[in-house]
Amino acid sequence: MLTRRQALAATALAALFVAPCARAQDRLKVIASFSILGDFMKNVGGDRVEVATLVGPNGNAHVYAPSPSDAKKVADAKLVFVNGLGFEGWLERAGGHDHDHDHGRADPHAWQSVANAKIYVANIRDALVAADPAGKDVYLANAAAYLAKLDALEREVREMIAKIPADRRRVITSHSAFGYFQDAYGVSFTAPQGVSTEAEASAKDVAAIIAQIKKQKAAAVFLENVTDPRLVEQIARETGAKVGGTLYSDALTDDKGDATTYIDLIRHNLRQLASALVS
Ligand code: ZN
């Protein structure tokens, strides 16, 4: 079993393979396993890359299964980026590994800390430079500009969280997607479901959370954009805790939503937390 620190070191964001050829005048075809990763890749790759995403906006990557057209997309791509740490359950299922569900699993949601997002961006930059050396200057410049925006975002997060009274920084979500946010920014998250949504929450876990909320008066419960809202709604009903809104855990929103980019996703989550927790 990996500790969180070991897991982070392994948050490799592996470039799965490099296919041969692709004519020089073509844009580099790259695949992201999910939408947040796709946004990082667009920021670093700019006009030189064509990013396709397997699990799109509001999609749940934990339970996704590739379609035949996805398999074709992957076959046509020069690079495929995945998160790793068990996030892409379909990769493990394809590889024949058998997991005992959540027990002992690493937490794959490393992007929920902005400092980690910078590691993703650096890894993407290095992989693109290796795959397309002619674009090196472009990738380095794009990455540097985006990393500066992430530095500003990190400061914004810390300033906003500092405005929430320490004893109100306690919330409930449906699955354990915010462990890195918790460790980085000091807001405590509890969830009935584990670090993957492949396994259902047990009645025992739900009862334990209800008891905990009644005792500690968690400030608010939040829905997520990728999971069924009913469990959190039930918890809110049974405890009288207020539903603080919807947090974006594992995916960007579509164009109708307010988080078509990672930076907007983090800002949305901050606004939701602040409006529910700053009384
Ligand atoms: Zn998740």
Describe this protein's structure.
This protein has 279 residues and is of the alpha/beta class. The chain folds into two domains: 4-158, Rossmann fold (3-Layer(aba) Sandwich); 159-278, 3-Layer(aba) Sandwich (Rossmann fold). The chain is 45% helix and 13% strand. It contains ten helices and eight strands. The protein has a four-stranded mixed beta sheet, with helices on both faces. β2, α2 and β3 (49-55) form a beta-alpha-beta unit. α6 (136-162) runs parallel beside α10. It is globular, with a radius of gyration of 19 Å.
| Order of helical and strand elements | HEEHEHEHHHEHEHEHEH
How widely separated are the two ends? 40 Å
Assigned CATH class of the largest domain = Alpha Beta
**CATH second-level architecture of the largest domain:** 3-Layer(aba) Sandwich
Q: What is the β-strand count?
A: 8
State the major sheet: 4 strands, mixed
Number of DSSP helical runs: 10
Topology record:
Layout: H1 4-10, E1 15-18, E2 28-34, H2 35-45, E3 49-55, H3 68-76, E4 79-81, H4 89-95, H5 114-131, H6 136-162, E5 170-172, H7 179-185, E6 188-190, H8 203-216, E7 220-224, H9 230-239, E8 243-247, H10 262-277
Parallel strand pairs: 2-3, 2-4, 5-6, 5-7, 7-8
Antiparallel strand pairs: 1-4
Helix pairs in contact: 2-5, 5-6, 6-10, 8-9
The structure holds zinc ion (ZN).
Zinc ion binds next to loops.
